[in-house]
Each structure stands twice: as C-alpha cells, then as structure tokens.
Amino acid sequence: MTDAARDVARAAEQSPLMRGLARGGYAANGVMHVLLGAIMITLALGGGGDADQAGAFAAVTEAPLGLAGVWVLAVLLAALGVWHSLRTVRVRGGDLRAWGRRVSPAAQAVVYFVLAGIATNVALGARPDSDERAKEASQGLLATPGGVFVLAAAGIGIAVTGICFASIGVRRSFDKVVRIPDGPAGRTLTVAAVVGYLGKGVAIGIVGVLILVAAFRHDPGAAGGLEAAIHGLLEQAFGPILVVLVGLGLISYAVFSFLRVRYAKL
Known about the structure:
Strand content: under 5%
Distance between the termini: 22 Å
Radius of gyration: 19 Å
Largest sheet: none
Oligomer: single chain
Number of helices: 10
Shape: globular
Order of helices and strands: HHHHHHHHHH
C-alpha cells in the first residue's frame, strides 16, 4: 500500500461525513442487538420469532415505514464497514506488528458488511437462514478430505472470538474504543459495556461449540447459527433462564452501542 493511498484513506476516515456515518452505523448496530435480545427473551418466555440477525431485521419491516428503516440500517452498517476498511488501509508498515494492527479493523469491516448484506436481503424480501447455511457449509467441509480439521478450526476460532468478547467486558478494555465520561453517563456506559460484552461473548461462544460438535461427530446437522444455539440452550436445564440472560446481555450491548454514537473514539 502506497503512502498516497494511506493519506487518502486517512483523510476520508477523518472527514465529518464519514465519521457521522460511522456513528450512525453504531446506532444501527444497537437497533439490531436490541431487537435480537428482545426476540430471545420472547422465545424463552414461550413466544415465537427467529433469533438471528435476519429475524431482527425482519422485525423492523413489520413496523410502519419499516422497509425504509431496514434500508437505512443496511446503508449505515455498510458505511461503518467502509470506515473500518479505511482504518485498515491507513495502517503504516509491512512488518508483523503492522499486519497485526490491521486484523481487528479488517475483521470488523467484514462483520459490518455481512450485516449490511443480511439487511439488504431482508429489505429485498429474502429471509436468509443462518442455520441452514451453517449446516450446508459444514456438510461441504466434512465431504472434503481434511475438511473436518478446517471445520474444527472454524469452531475454535468462533469460540475464541466469544471468549475475547467476554474478556473485553471483564477486563473493561472497551475504553480503547470509547471515551468514558464522568458521572452517571460514564457509569451507565461501563455497566452496559461489561454486561453487553459478556452476553455477546456467550452467544458467539455457543455457536462455536455447535460447530466443534459437528466436526467431532462428523454430523453437519449438529452445526448451526445463532438461532440453533439459542434453541439448543432452551432444551437444557435452566435453559430459558440462560436465554433470558443472554437476551438481556445483547440488549445491554445495544445500550452500549447507542452510547457509542456519542462517545466513540473516531
């Protein structure tokens, strides 16, 4: 990457428009998480709903002007993906430390682009099924020589990601991405971040465990996305209570995302 390209990326990243869109992206992320948490709690209490990102976006379409709202969420999430991509590009250096600094913003960019894609599909009338996609991908890998090891590695990677999210909450290292204000606002942000990162870490970790189980059993049907993880929890002793706690954790993460609109270090 040339210095000129890095300078252009830095200028674009720091522009008022790009920073404003990035803050809007955090708000969109908050909307998705609060709906996802609410759906999980509804399921735990015996109601219905699709406990995945597509289900959250689909819930928006049921509100007045909901379809337009989903398009807005898709645009803002994509903009946040672009902002993280610009952060990746502007990192200087070609050594291992420089590439290490690129990993986090690059991974976040991918996540937000995927979420924007899911929102776009829902706005166009499609209903992506994360569980079916996970099972199809697992089946394809298990049918490939050595694929079981790739699938196991993917499960481990997702589980580790969940642990990392939980660790951020426990260690309170989210202060690297937000400015924590004094007073009640700071205390609210801290509590929301701690609980939110723990809840999200648990949800992601369970998905990773499901994929590991599919690899060890050579059973693609055991794999699944977030919805399969939640339904798996509901079948366990005290499962509904655990699902409610995870749902509250995601709602707490949503509160953190909304506060991040104002206090994010951009």
